Amino acid sequence: MITRHKLQHYLDDLLQTTLIKDYCPNGLQVEGKDKIKKIISGVTASQDLIDVAIEQQADAILVHHGYFWKGENPCVVGMKQQRLQKLLANNINLFAFHLPLDVHMQLGNNVQLAKQLNIIHKGTKEIDGVKDLLHYGELSDAISGDTFVQHLKTTLQRTPLHIAGNGANIKTLAWCTGGAQSFLQAAAALGVDAYLTGEASEQTFHEARENNIHFFAAGHHATERYGIYALGEHVAAEFQLQHEFIDLPNPI
After folding, report:
1. Do residues 185 and 245 lie in contact, with contact meaning Cβ atoms separated by under 8 Å?
2. Fold of 2-98
3. Where would I find the H helices in 90-210?
4. Whole-model pTM?
């Protein structure tokens, strides 16, 4: 068991939330009960995840995608009202970590995805003032684009979009989980053979071909499952808490 206050400060310190400028508040977003024994984690604080937490009598929810995003309607109505009402009625804490979880060099989404895919990590690059956001490395052996598609499909259980910017084999690559298709040109500037992220936009097709680079979009949700799971497991081990990761299906 741990107090909400102690867990809040531990997570903020671990993920250095005050040092990163983000599009949402990081840390404790909704205050619930003071004593925490059981944590449910998931990628997004959806209504389905809240319902699982209520059913399993969890004291806290730990997610990558929380609430109160910059530019969204601040009014507590509709979907937002329903989510918050259930959290407050059941006295459940909500902790959310967005960019701080992406960039963490032990538990973060990018490092954890590299471990899943057996990518040899070589370094990081700052993007838009955020350190360690774009990662780069290499595979143990050069493989074709089609072979890397199968590797992604087997590991992530998701068939990726592949834009073959060239026909060369892949040895070096850069990656950033989630919706980071806009980093493609920064990845190409590193001179790598391929770039991997979660999503694609209309212009991505042209950018990949004109920059002569393989592009893979393996799913926003699929590429960001591993950081929040690792964080939940870390916290559970550190404070002897119960933890369960709930992988709710999301094709995007």
Report:
1. no
2. 3.40.1390
3. 99-103, 109-117, 145-156, 184-189, 202-210
4. 0.96
Topology of 104-223 in CATH?
3.40.1390
> CATH topology of 2-98 equal to that of 104-223?
yes
Identify the CA nearest to 102 among candidates 65, 155, 153.
65
Q: For residue range 42-55, what is the model confidence (pLDDT) as tens digits?
A: 999 999 999 999 99
Residue 6's nearest CA partner among 95, 101, 89 is: 95
Task: Give CA separation, 142 vs 111, 170, 178, 209, 220, in Å.
Answer: 21, 5, 25, 20, 25
Q: Coil, strand or helix: which one is 64?
A: strand
Q: Tell me the C-alpha distance between 90 and 95, whole Å.
A: 15
In 10 A of CB 232, how many CB atoms?
24
Strand order from edge to edge, sheet including 214-217: 120-127, 130-143, 170-175, 194-197, 214-217, 161-163
The domain ranges of the chain are 2-98, 104-223
Q: How far is it, in rounded angstroms, from Cα 237 to Cα 243?
A: 9
